[in-house]
Structure formats: structure tokens, C-alpha cells
Amino acid sequence: MNRNLMTAMRTSISEVMETMFFEPIEFSEGTDGSVFFDENRKNLIVVNVKYQGPFSGDLCCFMPKDLALSLASNFLGEEVSDVSDDQAGEVVKEIVNMTAGGIFSHYDKNAVFQIGIPEIIKKTDMDDCGAEDAHFLLAETVIGRFALNLTVL
Amino acid sequence: MAYNILIVDDSLPMRGILKRIINVSGFMVGQIFEAANGKAALEVIDREWCDLILTDYNMPVMNGLDFLIELKKNDLYRDVPVIMVTTEGSERMVKKFMENGASDYVKKPFTPEAIRKKLNKVMGETDDEPEFDDSDEDLDF
Lengths: 153, 141
Known about the structure:
The complex is a heterodimer. Chain A is of the alpha+beta class.
């Protein structure tokens, strides 16, 4: 695990959640995420984006649907009951897009990374991400937890 | 003077949030047009008059840099100011945007204030604080 990359991940997701959603986040230390996945396995929106640059890999976000609906409601200025699953997915894609961009500019502002287009994928566990060198974060907002996994191939 | 603005972003929620910010920014807005990529944006520009463009970089079909380059090739549109609103944060990419004719740059995530300031700066408007009303259209997002 690359500690500088992990720090960049923390900084980036914190900025995204605080600036765009007014949601401060905390990180659960020393957890492997298994409890999170056991609790939410059937109810996750999973968004993946690939990146290429001085090193390559992908960033995966695992967000429980209820949390995604709540964040989308906040972001779109609509009642939770009026937010569709598609809209929630689009908002998670934008979170992943902004977070990925932030990670690499915090990690090395001189390097150029090409970030792909975020996609919703069918995965229920971070093991599915096929990580050779994974950077896993469990982030906690006041309305729920979600996970990020950055792989470096 | 009210300005027509084109927002180019493949993310529907992001276009929505930019629209809401612009509408409450105190900036004189005429019409706001939307496009999901650079190619669609060129089609909008062909049929609608736009005074200002806000564009993302990372989009399918045609990205924001290719869109900027195409736009600046056309004598009719080359003077329309373009603000890049993007997650791209590397100094090299920002330099590339500016070298290809972007007027300014806002990094995502952004605050409503950052957008308002860039709009005013690029259009040469005074940067007074907006008078927000009590309507439903607030800045919470």
C-alpha cells in the first residue's frame, strides 16, 4: 500500500463530500470492510472508473442505495421519495469522477492521469475488483457508510 | 445585459447543479442551454447564440479539450469565452486548456461562490454579492 496515495484518497473524498454535499466524513481505521459488505451486499450501487498514467488501475465506490438516494436528494434539491435509482446512480458516478480527479492531483500535481468514464457495475465485494495492490477506505457520513477501493495494477 | 450560457457536461446532476448555481448567482442570465458532450455542444452552438460556455473535460464522444479546439477554429465562435469546469487538476492539463483558448478554469468539487466569481471575472461584471431571495431555489446541494 502506498501511504501517499491513501492520504490523497482521504483528502479527495473529504473535499468532494464537504464541498458538494456539506457532509463531513470520518474514516474507520483498521477495518477490512467485511462487516460493511455483509450488511450491504444486496443493496449496493457500485461505480467503477479506470485510470491510466504513471501507473494504472481503477477506483471503485461501494455505496448503499439508501445513502446514494439521500445524497442525490441533497445534490438535486429534491425529496428522497422523488429521486429515482438512475438519478442516485448518476450522482454516485459524479462522486467517483470528482474523487478520482482529486486523488491524482493531490498525489502528484505534475503528473497527467487519464480518467475514464465512470460506470455502474455489478459487483458485491471489493474482492471482485481484482486488486493486486488495493487501497481500501471505509468512509462514514452522518447518514451512512460507504467504501472506496483504489487498485494499482 | 442578460447572457445566454451553454453548460457542457455528461453528468445530468452536474448540469443541474451548475444551472441552479448560475440562476441564484445574481448573474444576468438569459437562456441556459445544455449538452452532454463536445459534439452535442457544437450542434447547440450552431443553432443558438451563446455568450459563455462552461464545459467539463472528461466526456464521451468528444471531450472538453477537443470541443474547445474545434470551437476556437471557427471565426464565428472563437471569441465566446469558455470556462473549463473539471476534475482535471494537473498543472500540465490546466496549461493545455489555457493554451487552447480557455478563459478560465474551475476545479471540481467547487463552491457556488467559485462559480459566481469566475462568471463575473470572465464576463467583466462587477463581483458584488448576490441578493438571494427566499424562494425554493437555494444553494443547498
